[in-house]
Amino acid sequence: MSALDGLSLGKLFSTGQTILTELEDTSLSSIDPEYQAKVADAIQRLSRADALVAQLNIFSDNEIFDEINTNDLKFLLIPAYLGDLTLKVSDKDIDRSNILEKSREYIQRFISTCQDHGLIRKEDSVIIEQLSHNKGKSPSVPAAQQRDQKIARFKRERAVKSQIQQLRAQLDGVAGKKDDEDRDVEEVEREWVEALIELETLRALENWHAIEQEFVMVKEMEIMREMMEKTGTSTVLDNREPVLNRPTWGKDKPMLSKEGRPLQPFVIMNKREQMKSQVFGYGHNLPTMSIDEYLEQEKARGNIIEGGGEQPEKPPMDDNDYEAHDADTMKKRQWDEFVEANPKGAGNRGNKG
């Protein structure tokens, strides 16, 4: 009998939510076995909670937000949490495209449920429409518009987080009090859950956008893998002598494939140049200048900086300069996205040109 069998719907949800919060604040690497064990535990708890919500028919498509019981509102967050957790799964035995597809299904179900209950803003509906049309393709939205949307979501996310903290403090302050304050407590709790849903909507849209971008990369990798299989090349280097040091490198394979694609780098030369290089040439390219001559030439061009010394310290940022903070945060986010989209070594094509 599983340890989760005796847990109620509320307990499954709260414990899964707690684990997800711990994962967001942890210092563990995402590939750490302990981290992945927590991810699996949270997914198992919230999956059971999701099944119970469906079994009990807690939500109806024709209900508006105000008609839903206050104690049940938080269960609307389950698909969003499962979509976020699924993206955190790192398992070499599971195809990445399957993980992305499953996470996208959870996110789309969460968004669809929020739309049914009137919880999606107009500006978010525009982004949802754009993402629905992309589906595995490169974004058709101009880069400037994507940047503006991202900045707007970031500002909203910061404001919503502040609102959640304030409402949570109000709920904690009136905990245990009853009688005349019961009605006010329920109103604050509904407002708190609504703010949580808005926060998860913003995160879900961000995750959905990241999934579509990664799908493009995954498809490109699959195409490259198929081409390598057809041409007989491999992405995994063996323990043999490096190809550049082999005496037969460049001579043991045809220049072009059957389809006419180049299989190795080459230089087009006329007959006279080819004969001249064979008679008078060397087996390698000789340097045309010494290192000192090269440095002098670069110095004359102004490409060498002299003097050195300590770099001036960057002036501290004003705490009230929100625009500067936003710009600095967006710059860091864009760099993180670039690093994720271009992992180290992704551009190495095995010296194939």
From TrEMBL:
It holds the Pfam family TAP42. Residues 305-324, 333-353 are annotated as: Disordered. GO terms for molecular function: protein phosphatase 2A binding. Residues 311-324 have a biased composition (Basic and acidic residues). One of its GO terms (cellular component) is cytosol. InterPro entries: TAP42/TAP46-like_sf (IPR038511), TAP46-like (IPR007304). GO terms for biological process: regulation of dephosphorylation; regulation of signal transduction. PANTHER family: IMMUNOGLOBULIN-BINDING PROTEIN 1. This is TAP42-like protein. It comes from Mucor saturninus.
